[in-house]
């Protein structure tokens, strides 16, 4: 991606240097008359491009520095709102109050990036990016990979303005936000997101994020006061193990069965519906063994009831009981679905397709073993033990979903899935 440069004076910074090299920070305590006197006596310089910047002392925004009109700084900078400026300043002060060594807007010349906050915790360097506006997935990966190249761990904190609850435990998560959600270091297959709102002075965290479509997920929301006793470690590495919300998942699966097809449905859903009709299956009566969450579902845009139905009908419906089936066969079919656009993965997995497909078919084969559809012979071979469940009424399908949910929940090796 080619770099973009700011060609107007809209971006804001909380730091500048004087001509003698003295660093001036709006994070420090200043009186307005002190800064007005300093502005009359000194020139303020951008610490990155060494060009002049203007000190702005308004009443509606956090005091800040800005480049002169039509000036281009050497690094990509986003125009920052008052919300963003106040938020990153609050995060910086919160870290300092906790005794964490932190720097605000520190420029890293090796990678030509300037994180909002950089800090050192337990001997490791972290770059905190406070993101309140939309960001392309490509730009997100560029910035994340830049930090990784120099051994700095990126932490993405989203603005509270990006927290979108749709209903109950259902939340909207879009684009780069999926990439910003790390896996819990204590519970490897559980993703979470951190939010901060400078207006309400509240932290928020979505835990146990369970993706079920391109921009929807089931999750557990917790809200904490800015000055609460929660530690940095607790915020960025949650230790609580939250159980899978099977009740909410079954309600979503019932919705997939009963909702009519919308005129704006995705290509995957339209193809899915046609595929089922060809096999004389109404879309709402897709196999009960389809539509289950797996760890790798985080990396898929397509809903699980769609791609799992494709796989069951393509690979299992033509087979007879006791026939063998291999992971390689499942992987081949799944790759074919992806290549034809029937199934879509998220941006960060497009570079590692083989690994992604292998993990997904293994997880699904293990689940089908729990459902007694497959019997495992060895690490890559299975036997088609019992036929998949294609039922004739919605009530039967929903009862079968409930029965399978108990098998999934009560199987030790699948309780974390």
UniProtKB/TrEMBL annotation:
Record domain Competence protein CoiA nuclease-like: where: 80-238
InterPro entries on file: CoiA-like_N, CoiA_C, CoiA_nuc, Competence-induced_CoiA
Pfam family name, one: CoiA_nuc
Domain Competence protein CoiA C-terminal intervals: 245-398
Domain (Competence protein CoiA-like N-terminal): residue spans on this chain: 28-75
Entry superkingdom: Bacteria
Protein name: Competence protein CoiA
Organism: Alkalicoccobacillus porphyridii
């Amino acid at each position: 991606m080619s770099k973009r440069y700011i060609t107007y004076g809209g971006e804001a910074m909380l730091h500048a240097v004087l001509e003698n090299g003295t660093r001036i920070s709006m994070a420090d305590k200043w009186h307005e008359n002190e800064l007005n006197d300093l502005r009359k006596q000194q020139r303020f310089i951008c610490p990155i491009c060494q060009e002049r910047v203007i000190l702005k002392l308004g009443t509606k925004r956090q005091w800040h520095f800005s480049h002169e009109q039509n000036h281009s700084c050497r690094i990509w900078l986003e125009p920052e709102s008052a919300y963003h400026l106040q938020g990153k300043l609050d995060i910086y002060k919160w870290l300092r109050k906790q005794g964490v060594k932190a720097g605000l807007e520190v420029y890293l010349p090796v990678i030509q990036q300037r994180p909002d906050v950089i800090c050192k915790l337990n001997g490791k360097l972290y770059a905190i990016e406070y993101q309140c506006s939309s960001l392309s997935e490509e730009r997100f990966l560029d910035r994340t990979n830049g930090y990784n190249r120099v051994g700095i761990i990126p932490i993405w904190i989203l603005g509270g303005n990006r927290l979108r609850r749709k209903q109950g435990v259902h939340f909207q998560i879009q684009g780069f936000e999926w990439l910003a959600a790390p896996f819990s270091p204590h519970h490897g297959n559980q993703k979470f997101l951190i939010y901060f709102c400078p207006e309400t002075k509240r932290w928020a965290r979505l835990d146990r994020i369970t993706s079920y479509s391109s921009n929807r997920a089931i999750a557990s929301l917790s809200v904490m006061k800015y000055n609460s006793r929660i530690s940095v470690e607790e915020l960025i590495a949650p230790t609580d193990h939250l159980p899978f919300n099977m009740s909410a998942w079954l309600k979503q699966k019932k919705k997939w069965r009963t909702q009519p097809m919308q005129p704006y449905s995705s290509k995957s859903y339209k193809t899915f519906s046609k595929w089922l009709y060809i096999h004389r299956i109404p879309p709402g009566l897709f196999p009960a063994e389809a539509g289950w969450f797996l760890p790798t579902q985080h990396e898929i845009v397509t809903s699980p009831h769609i791609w799992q139905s494709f796989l069951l009908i393509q690979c299992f419906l033509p087979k007879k009981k006791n026939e063998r089936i291999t992971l390689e066969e499942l992987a081949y079919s799944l790759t074919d679905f992806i290549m034809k656009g029937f199934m879509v993965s998220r941006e960060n997995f497009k570079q590692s397709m083989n690994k992604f497909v292998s993990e997904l078919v293994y997880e699904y084969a293990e689940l089908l073993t729990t459902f007694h559809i497959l019997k495992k012979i060895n690490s890559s071979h299975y036997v088609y033990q019992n036929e998949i469940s294609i039922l004739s009424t919605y009530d039967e399908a929903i009862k079968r979903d409930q029965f399978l949910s108990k098998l999934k929940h009560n199987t030790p090796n699948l309780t974390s899935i």
